[in-house]
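Everyone, describe these structure tokens:
***
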Amino acid sequence: MEFISKKFVDKDGKMFHTGVGQGDIAPSVLMPGDPDRSKIISGCFEDARFVARKRTFATYTGVTPNTHVPISAVSSGMGPLSVSMVAEELKHVGLKNLIRVGTGAALLTDYEPGRIIIATGCVRGDGCSYEYAPAEYPAVADPYVVKALAMACEEFGEKPIVGLYRAHDSYYRETSTAMISTYERMKPWVDAGVKMVENESALLFVLCSRLGIRAGSICVSHTSMVEGTEYYVGPDSKEAYPWAFEPGFMESRILQCSKIATRAVEILDELLKNL
């Protein structure tokens, strides 16, 4: 049975929350959380044009620079609820491939700030994904998207970590600078080999799987949540992630990640032609 929500539009015929309509977005979309990052990502496109901004959803559309594949950037805001709005609304206007481009905290003992981590799947520590499928349903990235992201990283000279994420709903409850017991809560996932903690990918993978959308996540890590590592920041620290907020540091890594994701859309287009 096809799984899709009712099409919910405003008085102008645009999708109610995102403000986009038929022809406004490309089949392949890069999705940051921050609306300002949609504009940054669109700087990696050719012929980029502003489409709409409504609430946390900022949309730009253009083509990729090498093979001119249509591509869009649509921000989601933070958290799984707003990601669900992006996926469900854009499905009605032609979305086929959705790649999250964001940030998260690494669960790595061997770590350096700014490391790129690609998700193969995600532990469902959120609540939103359970609105779409029971606990036994896996949250997995599309293998062709994962392959395209990894190939693009190689072209850019990056050596990404590829593995599992864990998504959660409460930012401060699982942030080492805010909670004394965070590492104790994270240790089982470190021991299980999970690579990163963030908020959105469990819902992204479950919902997109239900909707028939190919999905993936590529994130820049801003710290390690493993106590005792060089870049661990705990509740006694005077600054939160001081290296991550050095002028231009995260901006440069997000830009690199955006270029990689844009190239990955071109690679994905070629991979899918051969199916």
User: Anything to note?
Assistant: The first strand starts at residue 28 and ends at 31. The chain has one domain: 28-273. The helical segments are 35-42, 80-91, 143-155, 182-191, 201-211, 249-273.
